[in-house]
Amino acid sequence: MQALLKAKALQSFESQVFNISRGTPWEIVGYKSVDLKRAMRRLKLAVQLWLHIRKWHPALVHFHCGSSGPWDFLGDMLMFLAIKLHKIKIVFHWHCNPSLTFFPGRTRATQLIFQMTAGTADALFVLSERYRRILPDLYANKTFVIPNTFDSSLLSIPNPRPIRRFVHVIFIGRLTREKGIWDVIQIASKLVDKASNVRFLVAGQPSPVEGGMDRLQRAIKELDIESNIKFIGSIVEEEKKRFFNEGDIMLSPSHRESFGIAALEGMASGIPVVAYSIGLLPDLIKNGLGGFLADQGDIDGLVSGLYRIVQDPALRERMGEYGREQAKRRYDINIVAEKVRNIYSTLLGYPG
Questions:
Q1: ∠ CA(126), CA(128), CA(131), 5° rounding?
Q2: Domains of the chain by residue range
Q3: Architecture of the domain made up of 2-149+332-348
Q4: Helix then strand then coil, % of the chain, to nearest 5
């Protein structure tokens, strides 16, 4: 969101960021339990947000929400109501898959809560046309598709990659079961038996709730693949670009995705993506064109797709180029920012 606000199309708007996301990186996004400490923190943030808006007097608030569990959503709606008290324009940007959430539509009560809170926003942003159709017709005229975007510096990474001694399969994300880290380990074990020239590079932070790095290291030791998989920890900015430059194929065996930003970054960097067919990943990757997809949990299917790409450098190049063109044509930051600018301008009554 902060990168989007810096795009050329939005430079005519002065903006400030009020960060309400202070959870731990390994928590499951949108499905946290409720406790008194978390409830009081949300209440405190709502008061701080109300005071911040009162002091700054913005013309519009762009509220970015990734919550899908009931308690997190209600906590975010407390923040939303703090904005509503100021009677200013609000964009509600829903960064999740509505079909996997508790709001709106699971029950009459949840429909009513959504209708009284987020449903009163002046514009609703969703990630895809498919998600827009999930929302009730009541919101059709003010719902807009604003997809995620990516770091445009990844487009400068050369494609095809140079021929190396080893083909590098990369994974980036939280090292949790939800994001598929245990699938990565099983896939690595199976693939290196078929192709000895493969190495796995894994970036991300492990979850202490799931045993942390010690448990991951024990698992790869038991499978005797210590020399085939390397954990490099969390990476940011230039480190991230170097990481994608080292990759030849991206593996994304996540079990829960609203969009798939990591997969999009892989596409933008010019490499094929192999993933489970969940969320919007089929729309992003296009099975057989930008990479290969398998049914959720089909580890052998992912191994088969990876093996085909590992063995065929020309296929890697074609798939990588297709993915990069898709990323540039549909998800470039300037294209997305222009859509946002047009909606801002309409809401605020600006010409053009």
A1: 70
A2: 2-149+332-348, 152-331
A3: 3-Layer(aba) Sandwich (3.40)
A4: 50, 15, 35
| pLDDT score, position 67 | 84
- Asked if 213 and 206 touch (Cβ cutoff 8 Å), the reply is yes
Q: What is the pLDDT of residue 25?
A: 55
**In this structure, what token pair is assigned to residue 288?**
């057989």
Q: Which helix (H) or strand (E) holds 171?
A: strand 167-172
- Sequence-ordered list of residues with C-beta below 8 angstroms from that of 324, at least 6 positions apart, any chain: 155, 159, 267, 268, 269, 270
pLDDT tens profile 279-330: 999 999 999 999 999 999 999 999 999 999 999 999 999 999 999 999 999 9
Q: What is the spatial distance between Cα 76 and Cα 121, in angstroms, rounded to a whole number?
A: 13
Rounded Cα distance between 136 and 274, Å, is: 33
Contact indicator for 324, 270 with CB cutoff of 8 Å? yes
pLDDT, tens digit, 9 for 90 and up, residues 143-175: 999 999 999 999 999 999 998 999 999 999 999
| Spans in the chain with pLDDT lower than 50 | 26
Backbone angles phi, psi at 183, to 5 degrees: -65, -40
Q: How far is CA 311 from the centre of its chain?
A: 29
CATH class of 152-331: alpha beta
Q: Which two tokens stand for residue 76?
A: 């975010």
- Number of C-alpha atoms within 13 angstroms, CB side, residue 49? 25
- Beta carbons within 10 angstroms of residue 151's beta carbon: 17
Give CA–CA dist 195/197, Å, rounded.
5
Structure tokens at 81: 């109501």
Strand partners, 252: 275
What pLDDT sits at residue 245? 97
